[in-house]
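In this notebook, the sequence line spells out the residues, with the fold written below as integer tokens. This is how one looks.
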Amino acid sequence: MTVTENIELTPYTPPPAPFVELQQTVASRADAISPFVDQLMRFVKRFTMKVQDGNDPELDIEIAVREALANAIIHGNHGNPHKQVYVTCRCTMDGEVRVTVQDQGDGFVSLAIPDPTDPGRLLLPNGRGLYLMRTLMDEVSFEDPGNIVRMRKKLGAPIVWVNAVSTEQVKR
């Protein structure tokens, strides 16, 4: 009697890179955007290394996060001060920054938003937020029903972890 075995090969998936993560709740007020983004960018800069190739991926992340927060507060939560926006920022050791922004709104269909580069829309005072996010980040996706945006930016070099111990403390 012959026994046969089915062997199924699965592709190798490397384990995820070590990371640091910030989770924060932001009030649905437009005046909360700048102080929060300033704090978030200090976090990102602490765990990333400046790439000296003329590009500024940190600025790209900052602009995209400002746009995502503005959309969440203004369009998602309709400026309701009783609603919140939830933000998660993850910096991985392999040089990647991921930001998730979730509002408490009903969501939207991102593909239904008109292209702001169409000639008839170029002079409109708004409607460029999603375009900027998609242009500045490596990946932008929306989770159904459209009240969660996930953005990813791969930095040019692996992240160098900054030690919290000052050089004076090390010398002692």
About this structure: Helices lie at 33-46, 57-76, 129-136, 167-171. The first helix runs from residue 33 to 46.
